[in-house]
Amino acid sequence: MDDTSHSKVRLTSAEIANLWSQYVNDSMSICILKYYLKNVQDKDIKSILEFALELSERHLEKIKEFLDEDKYPIPKGFTNEDVNPDAPPLFSDIFMLIYMHIMTIHGLTGYAGAVSTSIRKDQISYFIQCNTEAMELYKRILEVLVDKGIASRPPNINAPEKVDFVKKQSFLTGWFGDRRPLNAIEASGIFFNMKKNVGKIVLEIAFSQVAQSQELREYFQRGQKLCDKHYEIFGDLLSESNLPSPPKYDSEVSSSTVSPFSDKLMLYQIVTLISTASGYYGAAFSLSQRRDLATKYAILIAEIVKYAEDGVNILIDHGWMEQPPTFDDRRELASKK
C-alpha cells in the first residue's frame, strides 16, 4: 500500500524543514526583488527580476497550503516592514544581475537537497518543479550575462596529448618546494568561491553604509575585510598557476546612505550567505588533492564559521532569529509532571 500520498501521512521533519527554510528565504527574496524592480533600468534585467518575483510569490502560497494542511504554523519570515521600495538606488543594474546569478545557484543547491530528503510524492513533485523553474531562471540570467559581456568565465585548460595517470606522491604535496600547477577540479572550486565572495563583498560594502545600527555597520565592515582577505588568498593560488581571477564589483554600489532594507533582513542575508559559503568551501576542500589547499580551506572555513556565529548571536540578541522547527524537549516535558 502506498504510504507516500499526502492524504495518508504527515509531513516528515525533513519536509517541514525544507518548506520552512524555503518560506523564510523566499519571503526575503520578495522584499529584495520588489526594491530592485523599483530601481532597475535595463529591460532585460527587469524581465529576470519579474520572473524571479513571480516564482517566489508562487512558492509562498504553495508552502502555506502544505503547512496549513499539516496544521503547522506559517513562519513570519520577512514582510513589507522589512523593505522600503522607495529608497534611492543602492546597487547598479549589473550588480542586481550578479546577485541573481549567485542566489539562483543557492536555490538550485537547496532544491536538489529538498528532493533528496523528501518522501511524500507531493513534496518530491513540488521541489522537482521548483528546481525546473530555477534552472529556467538560471538559464535566462546566464544568457543576459553573456549577452552583456559580464559573464565571469572560469579559466580555459589545454587538452593533453593522451590520458595519463599520477606516478609520484609529490602530486599531493604543496607545503614545501615546488608545487604542481592546480588541476581543473581545484581551480574550479577556487574560482567559484571567489565569485561568491565578490557578491558578498558588494553587499557588505552597501549594507555597512546604510545600516541603522553601529553594531551592524561594524559587523558588515569586518565581513568585507574577511571576504577581501579570502579573495586575495584564492587569487594568489590562481596566480601561481598563471590563471586569472574573476572581476570584482565594488564600484557597483551607489553613495546612498538610505537603507532599503531592515537591519534584520540585511543581517540575515549576510549570515545566510556566509553560512552557505562554509558548505561550498567544504565541498572544494574535499576535492582538493594538494595538501596546502586542504590546509588553507580548513583555516578559511574556521574563520567564516566564527564570523557567521557572531552574526547569529546578534540576530538572537535583537530578537530577530525565528526559531526553526524544533523537536520536543522530552526532559523538559517530563520535569513539568
**Structural class, from helix and strand content?**
mainly alpha
Beta-strand content estimate: under 5%
CATH class of the largest domain: Mainly Alpha
Q: What is the CATH architecture term of the largest domain? A: Up-down Bundle
Number of helices, where a helix is a run of at least 4 consecutive DSSP H or I residues: 9
Mean pLDDT, as a whole number?
91
Helix content: 55-70%
Q: How is the quaternary structure best described?
A: single chain
Terminal-residue CA separation: 39 Å
* Helix-strand string: HHHHHHHHH
Radius of gyration based on Cα positions: 22 Å
- What best-fitting shape do the alpha-carbon axes yield? globular
Largest sheet: none
Query: If you consult CATH, what is the topology of the largest domain?
Result: Ferritin
Number of strands: 0
Q: In the CATH hierarchy, what is the superfamily of the largest domain? A: Ferritin, core subunit, four-helix bundle
Number of domains: 2
The low-confidence parts are none
Please characterize this protein's 3D structure.
InterPro entries: DUF3231, Ferritin-like. Keywords: Membrane, Transmembrane, Transmembrane helix. The protein has 337 residues and is mainly alpha-helical. The chain has two domains: 13-147, Ferritin, CATH 1.20.1260; 181-317, Ferritin. It is built from nine helices and no strands. It has helices at residues 13-39, 43-69, 93-116, 121-147, 184-210, 214-240, 263-287, 291-317, 330-335. The longest helix has 27 residues, at 13-39. The two termini are 39 Å apart. The model has no long low-confidence stretch (mean pLDDT 91).
